[in-house]
Design a protein that fits this description.
By secondary structure, the protein is of the alpha+beta class. 32% of the residues lie in helices and 24% in strands. Strands 1-2-3-4-5 form a 5-stranded antiparallel sheet. The N and C termini lie far apart (32 Å). 22% of the residues are buried.
């Protein structure tokens, strides 16, 4: 499994670009998803859906006492330098196909686990 320090190595990293995903991004994405799996396992949550896009991705996490959902998304790593670390979109969701969800929240990777925990406790639906 991956930890946060594995991802911190990519701060200020300049990712490859092109019409196909570069191997550097594929490796980064795998490490990031493994990190999400790690925090899910530690909190008894489930990473239920990951949408791997070109140079960005989103995911749904289910957990809490009522098995509620949270949606997270990172921006394109090529154009939004370090936003994958400093500006992660997190919001509540009704289920794993709800891309509209609740209010947008932005957090850092350091605080991601905490904000997910808070949102899973306080979902309005």
């Amino acid at each position: 499994m991956s930890n946060i320090n594995t991802l911190k190595q990519y701060i200020n990293y300049e990712f490859s670009t092109g019409c196909y995903k570069g191997n550097d991004y594929k490796t980064f994405q795998t490490k990031y998803i493994n990190y999400l799996k790690t925090i899910c396992k530690e909190n008894n949550w489930s990473l239920i859906k990951v949408n791997k896009n070109h140079y960005c991705f989103s995911a749904f996490i289910k957990g809490g006492t009522e098995n509620k959902c949270v949606y997270i998304s990172i921006s394109d790593v090529r154009y939004f330098n370090n936003d994958w670390y400093n500006h992660i979109l997190v919001r509540t969701a009704k289920n794993e196909v709800d891309y509209k969800g609740g209010f947008n929240h932005y957090t850092t990777l350091d605080k991601l686990e905490y904000i997910i925990c808070e949102l899973l406790k306080e979902l309005p639906f």
